Structure formats: structure tokens, C-alpha cells
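call fold target=histone acetyltransferase
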Amino acid sequence: MSPLHSNHPCRFACQLLCTCCECKDRVDTHWHCTVCQEYDLCVSCYHTKSHDHPMEKLGLGLDDDSSNQQGAAAQSPEESRRLSIQRNIQYLILACQCRDANCPLPSCQKMKRVVHHTKGCKRKSTGRCPVCRQLIALCCYHAKRCHENFCPVPFCFNIRQKLRQQQLQPRQAQVLHRRMASM
């Protein structure tokens, strides 16, 4: 696992990106041996292979579908959906901050393609593109909790402005009703 340049926007996710010693896949979420210096397993190999030493789970969980699948039976559909949205928001933020065209994080590459598609899609404005609709919905979920002045997530600033306007409208209506009542 080689460290990336400190100015790489995905450095926190990419620092944890490693190669599984068994299947040779490059993964974010992995199990690292606390005794062996360079022994890491992907989540799948950790569950199927044995290792003699204690191991600790590392990574951001961005590519850990196995834990989601194992826990899916215990989770309600609403909880699974909520976790999926949170995970995809993490992907979106990482992809929007990353300027490395060859970023090794697969989730970053995928989300960059989605964002790039949305920027040039002709059907976006009519609401007929399912890819654009999903990205815009994801941006809305993100914008509801975002407090960044210069957020790199597409549409975030505009969505936050519209949300503020919607919050002000009921207040303005209440003020108007009070003024009307006092006349």
C-alpha cells in the first residue's frame, strides 16, 4: 500500500486502498493483519480464507457490499435505502473533490462518470433521464445537510437556496396573516 501525495483530494480513501493478498483486487475496505507487516485481505477473502493472526478492519466502507448484504436481512428496507444513500453521498463528495483523472478508487471513477454525464445530458431538463434524476435526488439529500460555502457537489448551492426560500415562505405568510389581522 503506497501513500499518495498529500494534496490528492481522495487521499484519505486512496491511502486505505490496498491489494488483497489472496485475490489481488484493489479495495478500500479490507482486513489488515496486526502482526504481519504487509498482509491485507478484501472483505470477501477475509470471510473465506483463514489467517493465523488477529486482523483489523480498515477503510471507509465505500466498497464493502458484503457487510451490507450480510446485514440486509436484519435491516428494514428503509434502513438499507438510507445507508445506500449515505454511501452514495460519500462517493459523490469524494468524486467532486478529486482532481486525479486516474484515481484508483473505483467508486470515485464511477461517480465522476455520472457527474460528467449529467453536465452534458440533453434530457436532464425534461426529467426524462433516470441517471440525471438519481444524481439530482442524491444532490438534494446532500444539500439538506451541507453547510459548506463553496461546496463542489453539483447543484448544491442552488438546491440550498431553494430550500431556504421554501422555509421562508411559511414564515412570510405568517407575518402577512398577523399584519392582516392587526388591521
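return ok
The two ends are 73 Å apart (CA to CA). The first strand starts at residue 18 and ends at 19.
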